[in-house]
Amino acid sequence: MARDAVDACVHGLGRSVPPSCTHDVPLLGADGFAALWNRRRVLATESGLHVARVEHLLGRYGTLVTEVLDLIRADPSLAGPLDGAEDYLRAEIVYGADHEGARHLEDMLTRRTRISIETFDRGVAAAPVAASLMAGVLGWTSEQTAREVERYHLRVKAERSSQEQPDDETADAARLGAPDVVPLSGS
Fold this sequence. Notes:
Blueprint: H1 2-10, H2 33-38, H3 40-47, H4 51-61, H5 65-74, E1 81-82, E2 85-89, H6 90-98, H7 105-112, H8 115-118, H9 127-138, H10 142-162, H11 168-175
Antiparallel strand pairs: 1-2
């Protein structure tokens, strides 16, 4: 895909670029994955997690799973499931805020995890717990934490409303009714 994107960008410029090597560059967390996958039962025993949990983590984080497991080792309460999104561990929320640069609850539940699309309620029940975990990492006040949860709830409400609209234009307008977490303009 990266090669195709570069080829499309330089097409018509009257220049050529060297052949792409992206197919030889492993993604972050891919280097050494097969060996770590073979150790998944050992990782499960060492961490106290079920092997299915370790496989889930390996599938999401690759070899960076060791960083998630380090968080659990430092704070065993992070090994528990996230209330409202039990397929995820509390450690994954902390990891997203501490290691992946998530700065808002919406980002965490929609992009850093798949909670917004994998839970029936789109992560509404998980939002307060996830926000509290993020607050510990990011130093949010109780007011900021409440604002993050409120904004997320408004986003979900707007998305649900958009899906009930008769056409795309009306649906887009309904979805855009939720305030942006980070405004796109200075106004």
